[in-house]
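Annex B. Sample input.
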Amino acid sequence: MALSFLKIRFLLLCTLSALLLLCLSVAHAGPPARRPRPLLRPPQLLLPVVKDEATNQYVTTGLALGDPPVPRKLVVDLGGRFLWVDCESGYLSRAYRPGRCMSPECALAASGGCHSCLAGPRPGCNNNTCSLFPENPITNRNAVGELAEDRLSLQLTVTPQNGTRAPSGPFVVFPRVLFSCAPALLTRGLAPGAQGTVGLGRSRIALPTQLTTSQFKIPPIFALCLSPSAPSPGVVFFGAGPYTFLPGKDLSTALTYTPLFINPVSTVRGPTHGEPSDEYFVLLQSILVNGRRVPVNESLLSVDGQGRGGTKVSTVTRFTTLESSIYHPFVKAFFQEAASMGLVRVRSVAPFGACFGAGNVTWQRAGPVVPAVDLVLDGENTTWRIFGANSVVQVGRDVLCLAFVDGGANPRTSVVIGGHQLEDNLLQFDLVNSRLGITPSLLFAQTSCANFRANV
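Annex B, continued. Sample output.
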């Protein structure tokens, strides 16, 4: 019995010793390596966008700059070359770094040269820094600004668990994002309180491009969905779909595509004039009203060697603008069709050149029932149909106006598709394949751009 007891005791000691050695080995080696979870798809980031009631400009406060991060109210400029901010009005950040002359950052930004500032040092005013020329897209004025880099925070989308509106996603930080400091006077004409603009154009330091080169490996694709209601925000998604809106609709499945074209000559003033444009151009082949083709000079629909003509998409142009020789036959065709529907033309209300009484107008889900306008674009079966909610605007109790304006006899761009026509349509800018995806009006899909919270 004693021998048996000793054997049992020996075995217990051996077991305890083995366990101790195992624990020491694990403690020395560190925790066991975990297999990383596969990334199902690159993440999406979002930027809420709201229409300013005073100016009808589209602004965001969802972007924060600096350390500590400070939300900035910025006008969304679809064709803007980069992000610029007023740095004269109390810009403070521990992470701010000016772009030094001859640095790789200056080369990437295609800087316009070096400058000095005797009133500094401070953000926007440092010696031996490279210059950019930020532009106010509302006034078309520009100024000399300092290239800089700072921390930027954006919201990460999270998928809801129960198909309802999810809480806001976490913010993610990009430690080095290039932008331009600008003088305070450049903000004149922007929405009240706006401190600059966020450029979504095709340049190497536009926001979509910089997010593409970030640690998150977001593809160079973003989607824009503007809400017509000032209290209810729309959204910019950075990254590929799905783009899910209430009540659980993935709008990426409804996209049809048309090629994006590069205008060989920039329309921006300053040193970049004459370089390729960073704006988004498409090939408009024809305009239809209730299925009937509007007679226009088709040469105006293409961009010539001097960068004139063609069609671009803009968030800073309020209403679609047509060159005069396109505008007048378009209005004539619209009212020929409107007369057959019992609509009566009335005196125009500026800035619109064509208005009609609201008395005989009926309404449906997509707005007032008026002649349908089709923009026939290059690409297979790519027709952008514009219904009443986007083709007309109510300017008084009894008056509706055609929401297209006369752009004059010799504008630089023949057709500018403006913000009013973009509202409640999802547009995907796919820079991988150089194409624009367009959904039909979301109003027929029983949702709207304000319902993007179904995906955040």
